[in-house]
Design goal:
Helix content: 55-70%
CATH topology: Leucine-rich Repeat Variant
CATH class: Mainly Alpha
Strand content: under 5%
Oligomer: single chain
Structural class: mainly alpha
Largest sheet: none
Shape: globular
CATH superfamily: Leucine-rich Repeat Variant
Number of helices: 10
Radius of gyration: 15 Å
Number of strands: 0
Number of domains: 1
Order of helices and strands: HHHHHHHHHH
Length: about 180
């Protein structure tokens, strides 16, 4: 898998196709790595990557739903273009999920995808300012500031792989 990432990093379109194919793998670890690879190496607006990543958000396997959906939301935010309405719709639905970690990742994916000052994004994230979980309220407040920026968008310096590692650690620790 590491070799595939290295080939993808060099811009080989076949590597991107291989990563997309691995999203169907039955081993969720392989799927996670493929999502991270797509987020890192697929060009923004790559329709095949957007469609394949979006498909990961529609899965219902409860055992892996939290992690896969969070990583898929972040990956989708990186491969879809700003203002991509189907991607925004999928990510917005995640704001209603029960797990606070998934709502948190969905907030930042929505910030990345939404144009500055987007009223529907401001409204959706604004509702989470009253979330039952303090961590979600804090993220929502920060996200609202980002959404109101004239340049718009996501300024958080975390890369997807580091966010994935942090989320995986939280899941394992039962946070």
């Amino acid at each position: 898998m590491r070799a595939l990432h290295l080939v993808a990093a060099k811009g080989d379109p076949h590597a991107i196709s291989e990563l997309i194919g691995l999203l169907e793998h039955t081993d969720h670890g392989v799927t996670n790595v493929a999502l991270c690879g797509l987020a890192e190496f697929a060009e923004e607006g790559n329709n095949d990557a957007v469609v394949a990543t979006s498909r990961c958000l529609r899965g219902t396997d409860e055992d892996s739903k939290l992690f896969l959906h969070a990583i898929a939301a972040l990956a989708l935010a990186r491969v879809a273009e700003k203002g991509d309405m189907p991607a925004i719709t999928l990510v917005t639905k995640l704001l209603d999920e029960a797990d606070w970690r998934l709502r948190r990742e969905a907030i930042w994916a929505l910030v990345k995808l939404s144009p500055a000052g987007d009223k529907s994004a401001l409204s959706a994230v604004g509702k989470l300012a009253n979330d039952a979980d303090e961590r979600v309220r804090l993220e929502a407040a920060q996200a609202l500031t980002e959404l109101k920026r004239p340049s718009g968008g996501y300024t958080n310096g975390d890369s997807l792989p580091s966010a994935a590692v942090a989320l995986n650690t939280e899941v394992k620790n039962g946070a």
